Amino acid sequence: MFGLPFRSCRANCASALGQVRHASSKRWQARQQKDQFTKEAAVQGLKSRAAFKLLQIDEKYRIFKGGQTVVDLGYAPGSWSQVAANRTQPHGRVLGVDLIPAQPPKGVSTIQGNFLSPEIQTYIRDFLRSPERGRPRQPDLGEPSPSILESNPDESAVEGKDGQVKILERTVDVVLSDMSAPWHQTSGFWKRSLSAPYRMMNTSGIVFKDHAGSMDLCNAALRFSTDVLKTGGHFVCKFYQGSEDKELEMQLKALFKKVHRLKPESSRSESKEAFFVGLQRKP
Ligand SMILES: C[S@@+](CC[C@H](N)C(=O)[O-])C[C@H]1O[C@@H](n2cnc3c(N)ncnc32)[C@H](O)[C@@H]1O
To answer: Where is the segment annotated Disordered (predicted)?
Structure first.
């Protein structure tokens, strides 16, 4: 009496939703084809235009140098990891973590899993604990290289919830997070591969939802950084602007000597996307 029976409504609604998503994906493709950063990424062999956001941040704040250990949260398809691997040569190491499977860029180690899961964070810490794991092998020169000496971890003692004091090894020089809450794949299953993985939509289009989701991911990345980042280490985090970002900025200011908020030229002007850069972790 009130419209279509449930089963046919479900079928019709799903097909209408599919058409809307198909149209928005067509618009996305058309915009990508015109975009100068997308063209330049293809010319330079970079996995996506996102590389230019990190390159512009590094031009401004010089976060990378040779021999560093970098953790790239939400690395797929891999352009930030490509930049980090290139800028931390020689003998740096980059560990990418992502929900979706994607071919690791050259010189990058990867873990597939949900960063918000405690098991995955334990797995990441175990990987980082061994200073040589994930680094390119060097011929035996008899003496340890300066970058190995620099990679000695800091240690900090923290009291756990059970009252026990734990020693945390701080082994990381730079934490990057470009994570965005993913939206489900609805099309294109047949044509995607590990080297050109399906790219989930990064935003829902609902401003508060995108903001709140990004605050959860940034807060998790910051908590992790508090445990693993060496004194003097740096932090870069993408977020969607909104009412709670001031609170995040305050927390960053407690941990880093300098905190910058910026929107690189290559970040689309119509999006609420912006970045926090925390420089030089305090002791
Ligand atoms: C904008 S893309 C990253 C692009 C990447 N920086 C690059 O340059 O190629 C955001 C990524 O975050 C990942 N992501 C979102 N939430 C995550 C989570 N909880 N754990 C791991 N990865 C996550 C998504 O799967 C997606 O691949």
So the answer is: 131-162, 263-283
Task: Quick: pLDDT tens for 6-55.
Answer: 334 344 444 544 555 555 566 656 665 668 999 999 999 999 999 999 99
In this structure, the residue with its CA closest to atom 25 of ligand 1 is 99
Q: Which stretch of DSSP H or E encloses residue 199?
A: none
Query: With a cut of 50, which residues of the chain have pLDDT below it?
Result: 1-14, 16-17, 143-144, 146-149
Position of tokens 């709670």?
A: 244
| List 60, 238, 246, 272, catalytic entry | 238
Q: Give the angle 160-161-165 at the CA atoms, nearest 5°.
A: 25
Q: What ipTM was assigned to the predicted interfaces of this complex?
A: 0.99
User: Which strands sit side by side in the sheet containing 256-262, from one edge to the other?
Assistant: 108-112, 93-98, 69-73, 172-177, 229-240, 273-281, 256-262
DSSP designation for 151: T
Q: Is 238 a catalytic residue?
A: yes
Find all residues with CB under 8 Å of 100, minimum gap 6, and list them. 76, 112, 182, 197, 198, 200
> What pTM value is reported for the model?
0.82
Average pLDDT, the chain: 82
